[in-house]
Amino acid sequence: MPALTSEGLEAELRLAGIVEDSIVDGPGLRLAVFVQGCPHGCPGCHNPEAQPFEGGRTIRSGEVLARLTANPLLDGLSLSGGEPFCQAAALAPLAAAARARGYHVMAWTGCTLEALLRAGRPDWEALLRALDVLVDGPFIQARRSLALAWRGSDNQRVLNVPRSLALGRAAPAEELLRSA
User: Fold this and answer.
1) What's the whole-model pTM score?
2) Is residue 4 pLDDT above 50, yes or no?
3) Domains of the chain, earliest start first
4) Which of 62, 104, 111, 132 has an alpha carbon within 20 to 30 A of 178's alpha carbon?
């Protein structure tokens, strides 16, 4: 396992909270990070307390990585919110470092993959490149379903990010959905 370094991991994140051992925020046992701040304001949001950009607490991204690596039982890192792409510059090095250490990295966004790519923002692209899976799309209360794995409404997609980037289009994470 590569040694912990501070390269890119000194950035501060504003978090609504951390769940040290989640079994519901992706496959396996995960460290779930909930960022503070979201511009979408989806009615019926699962985490309305994470919507305001003020509030929460700050933590260095390196401290989050240290928490992840301290627990040998963890399989992955989940980035939720709030809107993780609002803090992409700080999350991208964290996600890349976690993935380089063999952790599965998953994120949720109220944007679509296509909108993230069209924006042409280097920080968003860096975060995407560091992900294994992305759940994309806004939560739509009228399309809510309790039967879906890792998402709240049927417009949201569970995407295999490396495959999506290689193909230049959204590619479902079918292997994960079959096991969910």
Assistant:
1) 0.92
2) no
3) 12-179 (3.20.20.70)
4) 111
